[in-house]
From TrEMBL:
NCBIfam families: PRK13197.1 (NF009676), pyro_pdase (TIGR00504). PANTHER family: PROTEASE FAMILY C15 PYROGLUTAMYL-PEPTIDASE I-RELATED (PTHR23402), PYROGLUTAMYL-PEPTIDASE I (PTHR23402:SF1). It holds the Pfam family Peptidase_C15. It comes from Shewanella yunxiaonensis. Keywords: Cytoplasm, Hydrolase, Protease, Thiol protease. It catalyses: Release of an N-terminal pyroglutamyl group from a polypeptide, the second amino acid generally not being Pro. One of its GO terms (molecular function) is pyroglutamyl-peptidase activity. This is Pyroglutamyl-peptidase I. It comes from the Bacteria. CDD domains: Peptidase_C15. The active site is at 143.
Length: 213
């Protein structure tokens, strides 16, 4: 049986919830087709997330790693394609750290691409009429750093694949902060569809999901 490591973040920026963890924790220890999901919460910290992620990968030896983050300004799920070797934090993390215009890894590649078939995941979710898009920017905060470090770590584990997914704020956050939102139940459904799709050995979708700007 395959293993899927699914991570979400703790709350940040003065909020009491993080939609990524609200969704991830609902799938902890569930079995989706032939895959067992292991969910874990990560710190919203530039200094802590890499160590936490490495420990999880070492402990669980997953076949797939999907990291989730919250995109409070979005009303759709965003499957990320590319992680930049760049931090430019608009706000401080939960440790009060706010790096500005810094590389994630000195002399590291300028960018990494997700190794999960991102277009396949997007089109699978679209087929179920759940709002989703392919994104070419994971931002410049802790989410992008985690995505970059995940893909860097997976260069040491060629048998594993990984990627990053941004989810909208959840319904409870909308009431508190007036964010665009998506219900946690709908996000969980989309994640189940993606995990199912990853177990089907088919080539990546060849249609364009690109943007003009």
């Amino acid at each position: 049986m395959k293993k899927v490591l699914l991570t979400g973040f703790e709350p940040f920026g003065g909020q009491v919830l993080n939609a990524s963890w609200c969704a991830a924790q609902r799938l902890h220890h569930t079995v989706i087709d032939n895959a067992t999901v292991i969910a874990a919460q990560l710190s919203c910290s530039f200094h802590k997330t890499h160590g936490e992620l490495k420990q999880l990968i070492s402990r669980h030896q997953p076949d797939v790693v999907l990291c989730l983050g919250q995109a409070s300004n979005s009303s759709v799920i965003q499957v990320e394609k590319v992680a930049l070797n760049y931090i430019d934090a608009r706000i401080a993390d939960n440790d009060g750290v706010q790096p500005i215009e810094q590389p994630i890894i000195n002399d590291g590649p300028n960018a990494y691409f997700a190794s999960v078939p991102v277009k396949r995941l997007v089109t699978a979710v679209q087929a179920h009429q759940i709002p989703v898009s392919l994104s070419y920017s994971a931002g410049t905060f802790v989410c992008n750093q985690l995505f970059y470090l995940l893909m860097h770590e997976l260069t040491l584990h060629p048998q594993m694949i990984g990627g990053f997914i941004h989810v909208p704020a959840c319904e409870q956050q909308r009431l508190l902060h007036q964010h665009p939102f998506m219900s946690t139940a709908q996000v969980v459904t989309a994640l189940k569809i993606m995990i199912q799709r990853l177990q089907q050995p088919q080539d990546e979708v060849t249609q364009s999901l690109g943007t003009l700007y």
